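JOB MANIFEST
job_type = single_chain_structure
chain_count = 1
residues = 123
[input]
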Amino acid sequence: MAHKKLWLTLAVAWTLLIAVLCLVSFNKLPTVKIAGADKYVHAVFHFVFTLLWFAYLRIGTPRPLLKVFVGSLAYGALMEVLQGVMTTTRQADMADIMANLFGATVAVLIILTTMRYAPVRSN
């Protein structure tokens, strides 16, 4: 049970971190110019999001992987809509949603591969 609380804490913290980093302006901070860097960031956000929420939901939740995958995509889309509506320094970007999809998909593939070769323990 302690593990489940830890996974929930990490998943919620990561989810909130994504919201802050997506919705708060960091224009006054120095930037590093790397082509497509924001797409890599989005992919990593949703890769980790998917792993953490799956770790929390994997035991005792029917179809946890599907729920987490859809949840990741929905959360990413919501963040894009909120960027377009609630901020003046950011805008919604379909390419960001595709990067979110990529990160979540890679996480799902890793989870499926791991589950195939290492059965889930109940503790």
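[summary]
The helical segments are 2-23, 37-57, 64-86, 94-117.
The mean pLDDT is 90.
exit_status = 0
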